[in-house]
Amino acid sequence: MAATTMQGRGPPTKGIQLYSPTYFGACALGGIIACGPTHTSVTPLDLVKCRRQVDSKIYSSNLSAWRSIYAAEGLRGVFFGWSPTFVGYCFQGGGKYGFYEVFKHLYGDTLFPNMNKTVVYLGASASAEFLADMALCPFEAIKVRMQTTLPPFAGTLREGWSKVVAKEGYGGLYKGLYPLWGRQIPYTMVKFATFETVVGMIYQTMGKPKESYGKLEQTGVSFMGGYIAGIGCAAVSHPADVMVSKLNADRQAGESAGKAMGRIYSNIGFMGLWNGLSVRIVMIGTLTAFQWLIYDSFKVSLGFPTTGGH
Predict the structure, then answer these.
(1) What is the C-alpha to C-alpha distance for residues 123 and 185, in angstroms, rounded to an integer?
(2) pTM for the complete prediction?
(3) pLDDT by residue (tens digit) across 246-281?
(4) Rounded to a whole number, what is the distance in angstroms from the first to the last CA of the chain?
(5) φ/ψ of residue 122, rounded to 5
(6) Is 263 exposed, middle or buried (0-12, 13-18, 19+ CB in 10 A)?
(7) Nearest one of 177, 4, 32, 186 to 98, comparing CA atoms
(8) What pLDDT, in 10s, does the model give residues 35-68?
């Protein structure tokens, strides 16, 4: 297997040492900037996707859904659930990108310097997402309940948080954690490993080392690699995404996660796990492309190298 070619501590970059705590903190900030706003911007898609996952007959199409929601509730209704989305994915983005850089350096440079690069990417991304989802889970639970119940479970993040805690305790905010891990960890493993691999292939096809291209060209490669990675992410994680939506909307009091998933699956069947896939491919492909573009542009603005292609 090919060994990693990752470098150890690099020279100072605009006063920030590569692979220093400050560097990793900056990467986490880049993840916040990349993920919070982008996920929030596609709230209209996410809203319709979640509702169609829970009830496939609620709307005849995405366009009819948006027309119906806008006619009844205006623009606020189309972006319903934006606040838990924004807060949750700011936390998740910071953890995902920040810890990915930490674990990639730890696994690839320190602990297993001769390990195959793809294995390093998979291990680092899985470790990072495991931690990031603990921060995301409470906000994802509130978002899904707000978006999939009619009339809405709550009108704001604060109201939703208060209702869940009052009725179910803080444990109610984490009842979807296992399926969230089941959705997000494979998703992130595909997202990072595919991105790193595709970016490397693009530079190989272009025929010159990454460093010979300008920063604008490098971030363009990041965008292209991100979109390709996003398509794979959507397909791999979609059944678990459907189950997360169903669990948060339809799990009965005192019911174990395993029992709830078995009951839900018996109701919707295998094909039901793929409700809303086309919408999610568009949403996740676009999201992932822009996240990598924003993240690598932020790194470039601080004088850091872009991700991948080494």
Answers:
(1) 10
(2) 0.83
(3) 877 777 777 887 888 899 889 889 888 888 788 788
(4) 17
(5) -65, -45
(6) middle
(7) 32
(8) 999 999 989 988 988 888 778 788 888 889 999 9
